[in-house]
Write a structure and sequence with these properties.
This protein is α/β, with parallel strands linked by helices. The protein contains six helices and eleven strands. It has helices at about 15-25, 75-80, 85-95, 105-115, 155-165, 170-180, and strands at about 5-10, 30-35, 40-45, 50, 55, 65-70, 100-105, 120, 135, 140-145, 145-150. The strands form three sheets. Strands 5-2-1-6-7-11-10 form a seven-stranded mixed sheet, sandwiched between helices. The chain is globular.
Length: about 180
């Protein structure tokens, strides 16, 4: 079974985390929610939801994962990129060719981790100027090699389906899309 790790830091955008969790579960992909910090409970931006994570980042061995998902949200993406542990995991996944997926402000984590320089990507309009060493191409979801980026919250399901398409077969993806009326 394929496995996705989703990194959650306080201030994450709720839909950018929950949509990938939901889509992966529907597609039969194992999802591990990892808290970036010292508590398994992580609260979204605007205090909309608090998710109970499966593991703390300091206690997680990411070696069995196939993809890494980085939700945005403010200050969630800032908290992600400020974590040395997050940057190490992003570096490991990217350099080993595993999927790294970042939405909204989370592509700034790539810059903090020093990976994917020169790659095409999209991100939230408020962080475009922070993506200087990357080729910002705009659009909703952009794929470049093992990197998947999306512009923002309204594209969360499309983003999650792009990640799922890398992990499951066409029939499973089609069933998942049909089940969601997408």
């Amino acid at each position: 079974m394929k496995r996705v790790y989703i990194l959650l830091a306080d201030g994450f955008e709720a839909v950018e985390a929950v949509a990938p969790i939901d889509v992966m579960n529907r597609a039969g992909v194992s999802v591990v929610r990892v808290a970036v910090g010292s508590s398994l409970d992580v609260t979204s931006s605007h205090n909309i939801v608090t998710l109970r994570c499966d593991r703390l980042i300091a206690e997680t061995d990411f070696s069995d994962g196939d993809a890494l998902v980085l939700p945005g949200g403010n200050p969630g993406y800032v908290n992600l990129r400020s974590s040395d542990e997050v940057c190490r995991v992003v570096q490991s996944y990217y350099t080993s060719g595993r999927v790294v997926a970042a939405i909204c402000g989370a592509p700034t984590v790539l810059a903090a981790a020093g990976v994917a320089r020169g790659c095409q990507l999209t991100c939230h309009s408020t962080v475009i100027e922070q993506m200087g060493d990357y080729e910002y191409v705009g659009g909703s979801v952009v794929e470049d090699g093992n990197l998947i980026t999306a512009a923002g919250a309204g594209l969360s399901v499309e983003f999650a389906l792009a990640v799922a398409s890398r992990l499951v077969g066409a029939d499973t993806l089609s069933r998942t899309r049909r089940g969601m009326e997408v």
